[in-house]
Amino acid sequence: MIVLLASFLISTNAPARELVANCRAMIPADVELSGRIIRRNRKGISQVEHDYVLSRSNAVTRLTVDGKAVSAPSNAQDPLFGTDVTWSDLTLDYLWWDDVAYDAEREGETVHGQVCTVVVLKKDGRTVRVWIDRKTGALMQAEEFADGKPPRRLWGRRLKKFGERWMANVLEVGTDGSSHRTKITVEELK
Asked: What is the pLDDT of residue 150?
């Protein structure tokens, strides 16, 4: 999930790996998030809704949907429960990949008015491009590629303060060419 902490300025001279490590450090090591996953058609009409609880403790991630435990799928890119959301979207697993490089062609692009540094992460044939806010170090957007095209995109829509931590509490996931997109809400953070 996209999280914001106290502001710090991202050095454009820092290695890409360090930038991603700073972004990853903003995600709580032990956390429990709860909210809703809502697939909507392009007109915004709800089609599928699920309650979820995502917890991470001692580097183990657990997901419960509609009160039932969900195991990590063999393919982290597979959509969950007829939505656009994948295990990777919920866990941001790509932030721990080792193959990291700057995307110089997209340097300085903005997401929701925030100037970002763009990095590309790769592992086992998967490629994810992420936009990291230069001021806060927060992940602003992610795209996962298949066959050279950006088929899926995750982005934050709204921020909320949970205690001392700022976090995107409304996220969207969309698949190119799809007749729907999925909204993830974070209603509680412990």
From this structure: 60
CB 122 within 8 A of CB 99: yes
Residue 104 lies in a domain: no
Domain total of the chain: 1
pLDDT on residue 184: 94
For 101-119, b where at least 16 C-beta lie within 10 A, e where not — what string?
ebeeeeeeeebeebebbbb
Domain that holds residue 45: 3-96+154-189
Task: For 15-74, give the DSSP string.
Answer: -HHHHHHHHHHTS-SSEEEEEEEEEEETT--EEEEEEEEEEEETTEEEEEETTEEEPPPS
**What letter represents residue 89's amino acid?**
D
pLDDT of the residue at 158 = 78
Question: For residue range 137-152, what is the model confidence (pLDDT) as tens digits?
Answer: 888 899 988 776 667 8
Q: Which regions in the chain score pLDDT beneath 70?
A: 1-13, 148-150
Question: What is the chain's alpha carbon radius of gyration, rounded to the nearest angstrom?
Answer: 16
- For the record, the structure tokens of 162 come out as 């949970």
Contacts with 30 (C-beta within 8 Å, 6 or more apart), sequence order? 56, 57, 58
Specify burial of residue 147 (Cβ count, 10 A radius: 0-12, 13-18, 19+).
exposed
Contact between 81 and 37 under an 8 Å Cβ cutoff? The reply is yes
